[in-house]
Each structure stands twice: as structure tokens, then as C-alpha cells.
């Protein structure tokens, strides 16, 4: 099941009603494609102590579960894979839709979250995650 963002977050980027409807439509459309990656997402999430819904949401948002990709690349050929790893910052591991690649991107995500947590220890988990 998709989790809905706090209304304060949504209204800063777009109107709540339109934004919520858009997020729900996108998630519903991507669920079928995301099922293909359910096992690797869950395995990576378990190994990294992440919520699998977070990984799935990033995959949906970044590449529409692969729909927007051409051989794993975005249109400008700057980002690669389901989670859209920046090719200039990181050398991609594995095929664009492999568990190895999902693990690489999710590990980068965990490191980034931990950096925010270290810099802002008094923030709530939701604030740190944003």
C-alpha cells in the first residue's frame, strides 16, 4: 500500500488535492511494473534495514519502474537504473534493473540519510528522511 506524504510537505510542492491524486495515480500505474522487483527490493530493504515501500517509491518516482528508461538510461543519458544513479558521481554496479544495482542505490540512500541524521540529531525521522 502506498503511504501518503504529510499535507505540509505536499502543499509546498503542489496543491494537496491535485498532488495527492497525482501520487495515487502514479503509484497505481506503477504497481504492476514494481511487482517484477518485489523480491530484490524486499531483500535489499531487509539487509539495509529500510522500508521496502521507500525503495519502491523512489523507483516509481525516478523511473516509473523502468518505463521512462532506454537501456537503463534517462533521456539525457546522465542517470542510470531504476533509482536513477548519477553516472558522473558513481560507477553503476550491475544491470540497470538488477538487485545489485538496487542495493548500490539503496546503500547510497542510507549513507545520505545517516549524514542528515548526524547533522540534525534533533530532527524527527520524517524531517531527516525528507
UniProtKB/TrEMBL annotation:
Its main location: secreted. One of its GO terms (biological process) is peptidoglycan catabolic process. Keywords: Antimicrobial, Bacteriolytic enzyme, Disulfide bond, Glycosidase, Hydrolase, Secreted. GO terms for molecular function: lysozyme activity. The keyword Hydrolase applies. InterPro entries: Glyco_hydro_23, Lysozyme-like_dom_sf. It is found in: Secreted. It catalyses: Hydrolysis of (1->4)-beta-linkages between N-acetylmuramic acid and N-acetyl-D-glucosamine residues in a peptidoglycan and between N-acetyl-D-glucosamine residues in chitodextrins. Belongs to the glycosyl hydrolase 23 family. This is Lysozyme g.
Amino acid at each position: 500500500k502506498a503511504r501518503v506524504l504529510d499535507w505540509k510537505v505536499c502543499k509546498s510542492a503542489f496543491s494537496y488535492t491535485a498532488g495527492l491524486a497525482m501520487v495515487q495515480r502514479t503509484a497505481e500505474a506503477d504497481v504492476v511494473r514494481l511487482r517484477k522487483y518485489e523480491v530484490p527490493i524486499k531483500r535489499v530493504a531487509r539487509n539495509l534495514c529500510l522500508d521496502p515501500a521507500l525503495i519502491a517509491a523512489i523507483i516509481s518516482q525516478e523511473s516509473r519502474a523502468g518505463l521512462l528508461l532506454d537501456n537503463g538510461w534517462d533521456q539525457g543519458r546522465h542517470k542510470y537504473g531504476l533509482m536513477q544513479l548519477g553516472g558522473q558521481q558513481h560507477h553503476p554496479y550491475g544491470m540497470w534493473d538488477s538487485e545489485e544495482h538496487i542495493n548500490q542505490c539503496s546503500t547510497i540512500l542510507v549513507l545520505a540519510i545517516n549524514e542528515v541524521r548526524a547533522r540534525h540529531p534533533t530532527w524527527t525521522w520524517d524531517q531527516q528522511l525528507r
